[in-house]
Amino acid sequence: MPEMPEVQGLVDFLRLKLLPPGAAPATIAQVEVLSFSVLKTADVPLEALIAEPLSGVERRGKFIVLTAGGVHLVMHLAKAGWLRWSDALKPGPLRPGKGPMALRVRFAAETEEKPGFDLTEAGTKKSLAVYVVKDPLDVPGIARLGPDALDVDHTAFAEIVTSHRGQIKGLLRDQSAIAGIGNAYSDEILHAAHLSPFANAAKLDPDEVTRLFEAMHAVLAHAIASASGRPAAELKDSKRKAMHVHARTGEACPVCGDTIREVSFADSSLQYCPTCQTGGKLLADRRTSKFLK
Question: What is the pLDDT along the chain (293 residues), one digit of tens a residue?
Fold first, then answer.
């Protein structure tokens, strides 16, 4: 799932393409919906975006927001969605089908082949979502967002953590508490903070809260710096290569050399290092909710 660093990388890339310094902003020429389930709104027509110069490209949590003529095209890539840029999309309409293509946006150009991007989604579970709204807060997911992970200060973060009655892994992924972090970076942050993903947030002591806060900022800031300036096509591989524990089950921890372990759930999994995070204990599958003895 694209998280804050990758979404910010996409936003930075789109800004360079669509709002280049010293040049006129791009204008949307066409929006094609290939998967009708992807469009979640109907009050504002897609046509309201056409022929209007872009005035903004920004990130809200894990949402991408393009603004043109006072109307906002809001995109959430969900678990398996992605944005593919092309400097020259071939002319002609696309046929809706069962493939990964969900939506295409073309921008105005003097040539027949126009620059633009496609939204794609792998797999059969379709969660990618697109909204056309007059206010980004009309999108329920944006309206529920908590403070951005890199904007929250230590005091506010400590209050969020100590008031949460649940596991710290779940809190980090809760967009209404802290925006921008998903499954992958929560694993990386907890590893850097030397905390178990099953630790009770409310029971963390002040030193542990401080370690977690510093790890969150360090991991995300480094990942955003790595993503900045990369073409959209390179962001996924860059993310995979940078992971220390996430999706590295069975490999050696780069910090201590212990074997990275996994806990599986119905539709996801987490990875952790026993030596770095749980005092050497192996975590049981959450269906048992106990440490393995």
Answer: 799 999 999 999 999 999 999 999 999 999 999 988 899 999 999 999 999 999 999 999 999 999 999 999 999 999 999 999 999 998 888 877 677 999 999 999 988 889 999 999 988 788 999 999 999 999 999 999 999 999 999 999 999 999 999 999 999 999 999 999 999 999 999 999 999 999 999 999 999 999 999 999 999 999 999 998 788 888 888 898 999 999 999 999 999 999 999 999 878 899 999 999 999 999 986 544 444 43
Distance separating alpha carbons of residues 234 and 230, to the nearest angstrom: 6
Domains of the chain, residue spans: 4-143, 154-277
Chain position carrying tokens 């599986």: 264
User: What is the second-level CATH architecture of the domain 4-143?
Assistant: Alpha-Beta Barrel (3.20)
Look at the chain and count its residues: 293
How many Cα atoms are found within 13 Å in the side-chain-facing hemisphere of 291?
11
Write down the pTM of the prediction.
Answer: 0.93
The CA distances from residue 14 to 48, 57, 73, 129, 231, in Å, are 20, 7, 13, 18, 9
- Of 2.40.50.100, 3.40.50.300, 1.10.8.60, 1.10.8.50, the CATH number of 154-277 is 1.10.8.50
